Amino acid sequence: MESMSVGLTHFLVLSSLLFSLGIYGILTRKNAVLVLMGVELVLNSANINFIAFSRFGNFGYDGQLMALFVIVLAAAEAAIALAIVLNIYKSFHNVNVDEIDKLKE
């Protein structure tokens, strides 16, 4: 019985699926929290690419350090974005992205 090994192609396919789902979530959702979840999927797909190329491209720890940086960036982005969403909800009692343009007035 032949053992199956996971290669670079498997990681890239998984990353492209996550990226596609994230872009779909960003473009089709009206709720700001769901849009933020789509952004997190896109960032996680980038992390998978960094780790995969670090592992299979002989780049040392550079890809892993970049993935760690993206994780820290995503945590900061989530905290700030959720604070903004909570303030919008407190003002308008709604978090739909289509209705946030009333902030201009």
The global form is elongated
Helical/strand content category: mainly alpha
Number of helices: 3
Range of helix content? over 70%
Q: Please compute the radius of gyration using only Cα atoms.
A: 18 Å
Subunit arrangement of the protein:
single chain
The CA-CA distance between the termini, in Å, is 68 Å
Give the tally of β-strands. 0
Task: Explain this structure.
The protein is mostly helical. The protein is 73% helix and 0% strand. The chain has 3 helices and no strands. Helix 1 (8-28) runs antiparallel to helix 2 and helix 2 runs antiparallel to helix 3 (62-92). The longest helix is centred in the C-terminal third of the chain and has 31 residues, at 62-92. The protein starts with 7 loop residues before the first helix and ends in a 13-residue tail after the last helix. The mean pLDDT is 87.
Structure summary:
By secondary structure, this protein is mainly α. It is built from 3 helices and no strands. The protein is elongated.
Name some characteristics of this structure.
0% strand; 105 residues; mainly alpha
Write the layout of secondary structure elements.
Elements: H1 8-28, H2 32-56, H3 62-92
